Design the sequence.
């Protein structure tokens, strides 16, 4: 296990086996922005500050946004600081960023989300399901359905989606498994989503 009470930056993997990475300091993911993996569990405590850099809409790469995968369970809390990078100056209301996925369960909630200092008018909210956490531009979380497998498959197979439920017309759909995943989603018949 490892506890951070200062500043910790990661652009790769942190291997803790079955241990827990506990953050009560500042955690910076990726390489402006990038993707990091915690092999083990993650606990973002009440004093945690998670910095999420956004320079585009691709998960875990630049241009794109910071993303973290935890192989075990993830407990979230504390503050998220949103930072815009490069030419990225604003996101549209409803835009969603899949910032955390876990192989185990995900629990908790962020107490504060600080808007980017370069655009204080861009408010963000967070939401998710039992295995993920999403930042969404706006003041109300409108719902997100996430493709939850690295494998290709059919849109109409409920088990391919978060919560085992097919997307609905009002939900934002995210099909982005990060820099290493590239599933092909087959659509036959009718498929609905609020945003893709």
Sequence:
């Amino acid at each position: 296990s490892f506890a951070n009470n200062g500043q910790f930056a990661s652009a790769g993997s942190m291997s803790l086996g079955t241990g827990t990475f506990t953050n009560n300091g500042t955690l910076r993911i990726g390489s402006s922005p990038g993707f990091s993996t915690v092999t083990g569990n993650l606990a973002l405590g009440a004093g945690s500050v998670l910095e999420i850099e956004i320079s585009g809409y691709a998960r875990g790469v630049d241009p794109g946004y910071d993303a973290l995968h935890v192989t075990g369970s993830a407990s979230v809390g504390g503050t998220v600081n949103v930072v815009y990078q490069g030419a990225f100056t604003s996101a549209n209301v409803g835009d969603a960023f899949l910032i955390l996925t876990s192989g185990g369960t995900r629990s908790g909630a962020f107490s504060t989300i600080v808007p980017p200092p370069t655009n204080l008018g861009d408010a963000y909210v967070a939401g998710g399901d039992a295995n993920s956490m999403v930042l969404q531009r706006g003041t109300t979380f409108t719902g997100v359905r996430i493709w939850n497998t690295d494998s290709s498959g059919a849109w109409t197979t409920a088990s391919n989606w978060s919560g085992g439920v097919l997307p609905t017309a009002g939900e934002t759909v995210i099909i982005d498994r990060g820099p290493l995943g590239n599933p092909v989603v087959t659509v036959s018949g009718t498929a609905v989503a609020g945003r893709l």
